[in-house]
Amino acid sequence: MKTIKVHVVTPDGPVHDSDVETVIAKAESGELGIMAGHVPMVAPLKIGVIHLKNGKTSEYLAVNGGILEVRPDKVTVLAQSAETAEHIDYDRALRAKERAEQRLHTQSNEHVDFKRAELALKRAMNRISIVEKRY
Ligand code: ATP
């Protein structure tokens, strides 16, 4: 099967480069499955998992938003953060989840930015889902 190049770039620099058969990503508009020869497009991504599939092997990246650009032979992901399971600090993610939940459960309080806490919770749960293999 033909493969497509995948580049994942964050503000810290490139974090992933590979050739895969399929890229499955969660765009704001819904789930996208991309293979070589896909029509060029740009799509904003949700906080979610990017699944890179090559035959029977798969790799998963926890991605914090960003943009996916598709060209016929290349997919580029520009994201604020992106980590594979081995780069995720599970305890840190659990602590981030707990902090965000505490903030969200605080009774109406002008010092709590609920939208910010909600996004932090999503990022933490996304990371946890990769480590726990609940994609
Ligand atoms: P925290 O509150 O623990 O910092 P966060 O969701 O606010 O979590 P981000 O702003 O998404 O963190 O990421 C900041 C940087 O820290 C990025 O480089 C990201 O890859 C890294 N990072 C955040 N959480 C983790 C984690 N659990 N494991 C590994 N790297 C992480």
From TrEMBL:
The keyword Hydrolase applies. Keywords: ATP synthesis, Cell membrane, CF(1), Coiled coil, Hydrogen ion transport, Hydrolase, Ion transport, Membrane, Transport. Residues 86-131 form the ATP synthase epsilon subunit C-terminal domain. Gene3D superfamilies: ATP synthase delta/epsilon subunit, C-terminal domain, F0F1 ATP synthase delta/epsilon subunit, N-terminal. HAMAP family: ATP_synth_epsil_bac. F-type ATPases have 2 components, CF(1) - the catalytic core - and CF(0) - the membrane proton channel. CF(1) has five subunits: alpha(3), beta(3), gamma(1), delta(1), epsilon(1). CF(0) has three main subunits: a, b and c. Belongs to the ATPase epsilon chain family. This is ATP synthase epsilon chain. It comes from Niallia taxi. The gene is atpC.
